[in-house]
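Supplementary Methods, section 5.1.

A reviewer requested that the exact input to the structure prediction be made available. We therefore reproduce it here, unchanged from the version used in the analyses.
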Amino acid sequence: SALGGRLRVRAADRPIIRWRWKAERLPEGGDETIRGRDDVAARLLLVFHESWRPSQVKAIGYVWGNTLTSGQVIDSPYSANVKIVAVESGRNALGMWKVEERDYAADYQRFFGEPADSLLGVSIMTDSDNTRSIAVAYYDYIELDRPRG
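The structure derived from this sequence is encoded token-by-token as follows.
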């Protein structure tokens, strides 16, 4: 399942994204590195460049990983223009609410070698269609902010 919204926020104005989520069940056999098995219990996807050509879309997916370790970054198995970041990983924190914060503008600069212009969309996804299993996750809030201090 997925839920998303369009927006246009200058990344320089609000470069911090903060959210709260809880995964209760990871998809059995999910592996973020393999096309066709890249299901995850929780994903927050930020879209920066939209195009009718999928190869031109640039996005960052923050995930509760199955096989990736926390902090690991990979290219999506579908496109090098979509970076996957394991913010949480595995079963150790299942059932616990976790508050996350990322400087998505700095992540974009690091991943794509250029400054982020505008954040154009945000989606949340709980995904288990490829593995034909069950994934369960909850999302509480998502907010964009300026750096503190």
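The mean pLDDT is 94. These observations are discussed further in the main text.
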